[in-house]
Each structure stands twice: as structure tokens, then as C-alpha cells.
């Protein structure tokens, strides 16, 4: 099964977290992620909060959706606000398209010492949603096919 997480932003935080969580749940899945406007590097705070759970994403590098154009995937999952509107410009075929909206922790209006808590909250939301996605959707699809 091939799953692509797509975000409108830089593919440096939420989509890399999602990719890592789903790979951790089931290593046999082919899990990819990309952004419409990829950043130069993985977000350092995303690396930090994932390390707190024993997951190292420091080796993951942001990628452009263009690397995956023309590809067929089982699930194309958009993660960021605005992605649904811009998805029409992306030429990636998917059997299923799902949108899971998560706030961008980089856009949080808070004091710098509170920012890490925002990243932790987003990380935990992503983990919970993907646990549900795996157990309630992917596992059921395998049973039904």
C-alpha cells in the first residue's frame, strides 16, 4: 500500500511527522511525504519533539510534490490548511483522498518558550489521527480486500 502525505508548506514538520508515525505503525507500508513549497531542511523543533518519543526524523529531507507527479497512490492525505484548494494543481492519482487539517506550529502566536508545547500538541494530534486512520481505515480495507 502506498500513502503520500501532502502539505501546502515546506514538508518540514507535520507531513514528516505523519510519515514517520505511519512507518512506525507498519513498516510494510510505502509512506511518502511532500510539500508544494519544500523548505531547505527539516524543522528543528519537529525533530526535537519526535525525538522525545524515540522517533528520529533528522535524516528526513523535505521533498517537492513534483518528485511524485504521475504516480499512483492508494491514499493521498493532505495535512495543512489550504491544501485541499491547491490539490487540483497536483498531478498525482489516488484511489482515496483524505484531508486531515492540522495547525501550523510555526504560525503560533505565543512566547518562544511556549512554542515547544505547541509542537508537542500538534505531534500528538497527528499521532492520534494516524492511529485511528490505521486501525479504522487501513486495517478494515485489508480485511475487505
Task: Lay out the secondary structure.
Elements: E1 2-7, H1 14-25, E2 30-35, H2 44-51, E3 72-80, H3 83-86, E4 93-102, H4 112-144
Parallel strand pairs: 1-2, 1-3, 3-4
Helix pairs in contact: 1-4, 2-4
Characterise this structure.
The model has no long low-confidence stretch (mean pLDDT 89). The protein has a single domain, classed as Rossmann fold (3-Layer(aba) Sandwich), CATH 3.40.50. The chain has four helices and four strands; from the N terminus they run E-H-E-H-E-H-E-H. The radius of gyration is 15 Å and the shape is globular.
Report the CATH C-level class: Alpha Beta
CATH superfamily: Response regulator
Instruction: Estimate the helix proportion, in percent.
Output: 25-40%
In round numbers, the mean pLDDT is 89
SSE order, as H and E? EHEHEHEH
Number of strands: 4
Unreliable stretches, pLDDT < 50, 5 or more residues?
Answer: none
Main pleated-sheet profile: 4 strands, parallel
Count up the helices.
Answer: 4
Q: What would CATH call the architecture?
A: 3-Layer(aba) Sandwich
Using the CA coordinates, give the radius of gyration. Answer: 15 Å
Assess the beta-strand content as a share of residues: 15-25%
Q: Which descriptors apply to this entry?
A:
alpha/beta; single chain; 4 helices; 4 strands; Rossmann fold
How would you summarize what this structure contains?
By secondary structure, this protein is of the alpha/beta class.
Amino acid at each position: 500500500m502506498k500513502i503520500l502525505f501532502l502539505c501546502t508548506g515546506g514538508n518540514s514538520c507535520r507531513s514528516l511527522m505523519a510519515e514517520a508515525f505511519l512507518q512506525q505503525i507498519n513498516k510494510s507500508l510505502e509512506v511518502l511525504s511532500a510539500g508544494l513549497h519544500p523548505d531547505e531542511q527539516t524543522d528543528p523543533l519537529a525533530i526535537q519533539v519526535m525525538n522525545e518519543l524515540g522517533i528520529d526524523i533528522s535524516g528526513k529531507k523535505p521533498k517537492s510534490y513534483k518528485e511524485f507527479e504521475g504516480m499512483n497512490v492508494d491514499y493521498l492525505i493532505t495535512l495543512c490548511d489550504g491544501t485541499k484548494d491547491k490539490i487540483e494543481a497536483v498531478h498525482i492519482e489516488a484511489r482515496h483522498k483524505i484531508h486531515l487539517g492540522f495547525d501550523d506550529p510555526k504560525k503560533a502566536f505565543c512566547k518562544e518558550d511556549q512554542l515547544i508545547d505547541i509542537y508537542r500538541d500538534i505531534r500528538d494530534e497527528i499521532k492520534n489521527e494516524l492511529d485511528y486512520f490505521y486501525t479504522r481505515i487501513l486495517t478494515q480495507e485489508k480485511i475487505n480486500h
